[in-house]
Amino acid sequence: MLTRRAFSATLLGAVAVPFVGRAFAQTPSDIRSQIANMSKLHAIMVQRGDEIIVAEAPRGPGLDRVANIKSCSKSIIGLLTGSAIAQGAIPSVNATLGEIAPSIIPADATPGVENLTIEDLVTLRAGLEGTSGRNYGAWVNSDNWVSFALRRPMVASPGGRMIYSTGTTHILGAVLAVATGKNLLEQARAVLGQPLGIEIPAWTRDPQGFYFGGNEMALTPRAMLRIGALMRDQGRFDTDQIISADWIDQSTQARTRSPYSGLDYGYGWFLSNSGFIIARGYGGQIIAAHPEKNLAVVITSDPTSPARSGGYFGQLMDLLEGPVLSLV
């Protein structure tokens, strides 16, 4: 850990200097100062070990009311996938859609989708044209979200490059529901909610009743922090092993890379060069863990405003990899 040293007033005020360029120890007060002018940021919490050392909500609904975590939901689906495999509902990440959930495949599906594996889905490497971005509206306005996603043309080889698509994670969520016999809400509450002592409200369902697999979940920042600490602590909470340590290890191995942020991606989690394990949601929602530094971090932000890698999300990464990593 870096030795505490004093900041000059000029350095503290130099907004133009990137956070990552500041190799100085930081204090919680410094973090408060640095987020004061980040108008999109609603809340930030940092836990080191068992101690919450930063808990600030300068705007937004606060630390004890739910926030839409957007695509951080994809990382939650990743944890539920590991649980389903551990329970034997799914034999392995190599199991195929046709083996596990043939009932959700429409008659006019794109040829080959029955051979998509759980790993293809959880790593966003299904090869199907994405349903995010310009295709999102047509997808969520369709009468069958799973069928719509499975009818997208194959634009890459399955298991190849990452194609960011909420439809892919929604397919995975439907597979989990079929394989376990429990909907995603029931799974989330049983696997994470009850063991972690957090509330998980019901969220959006598709026309067939499948809970949205990859968007629209809502958690309080305090609940998000417990999930961050779970990732930091190899799937443990207090003395209980909630998610297998092996699944956490598998989840945090780079399988592909985001074409947008350049971050590596595992089983539902982004991975930074500095050692952060990250769930990322639209607008700047973040659940992060840094096992080496014994840190868990959450950030909630305005869920209606984009947070691009070259813009606000980049600022949040600078905040994580600079001041937060340098906390003393």
Automatic annotation (TrEMBL):
Domain Beta-lactamase-related as annotated: residue spans: 43-306
Q: Does the keyword Hydrolase apply?
A: yes
Annotated signal sequence is 1-25
Q: Which UniProt keywords apply?
A: Hydrolase, Signal
Coiled coil, from the record: none
The record's annotation in SUPFAM superfamilies points to:
beta-lactamase/transpeptidase-like (SSF56601)
EC number(s) for this protein?
3.-.-.-
Drop me one GO molecular function for this one. hydrolase activity
Matches recorded under Pfam families? Beta-lactamase (PF00144)
The record's InterPro entries line, in alphabetical order, gives: Beta-lactam-related, Beta-lactam/transpept-like, Diverse_Enzym_Activities
Instruction: Return the PANTHER family for the record.
Output: BETA-LACTAMASE-RELATED, BETA-LACTAMASE-RELATED DOMAIN-CONTAINING PROTEIN
State what protein this is by name.
Answer: Serine hydrolase
Lineage, top ranks: Bacteria, Pseudomonadati, Pseudomonadota, Alphaproteobacteria, Rhodospirillales
